[in-house]
Amino acid sequence: SRLDPTRDGRPGGRPWQGGGMDLPAYRERLLPRWWAWLLAGALVAMLAVAYGAALGPTVGVVVAIAAGLVAAWLLWISAPVVTVAATTLSAGGAVLPLSCVCGVEVVDGARIRTLRGPGADARLFVELRPWSASGGVLVTLDDDEDPHPAWLVSSRGPARLAEVIRARIASGPE
Prior knowledge:
4-stranded antiparallel beta sheet, 4-stranded mixed beta sheet, 8 strands, 22% strand
C-alpha cells in the first residue's frame, strides 16, 4: 500500500529530505527522560568499575568513555522523530499524507492505556515511547487503502502537535 508505515518510499528513508522543499512545521525527537540517561550512566559506571578493578584504572577510564559514548549514541538513534511537514506526518520511519487525516485528538496517559489495553483495535498504528512522553495524539484516517484506522503517536507537546496537524489540514496542499 502507498501508506506502508514501515517505509516512506523515498531514497534515504528520511521523510523531509528534499533540498528544503518540504521543511517541517513541527519536529520533535522523543529522547528518553532524564532517568533513562541516569540509568544508562549507572550501567556504564558499573561496567567501568568492574573493568577498572580487574584490569587497572586506565582500562576502567577507557571503558567508561567508550561505553558512555555508545550508550548516548544508542539512546539518541533509538529515539523516533515526529515531524509534520506541508503535506505529511511522519513518526519514526512511517509517513502519512495529511490528505488522509480526518481527525486529530490529544490523548493523555490514561487514554493511551485504554487505546493499547485489552479490547484495543489491533490495526492501530502505534509509535509510542512511554519513557519519553506521557501524552500523545490519536490521528484518525479516512483512507480505505490503509490497513490502519488511526495512528497513535507519543509527544511531549501533544496539544501543539495536534494544532499543527489541524492547521496543515485546514490550509490544504500548497
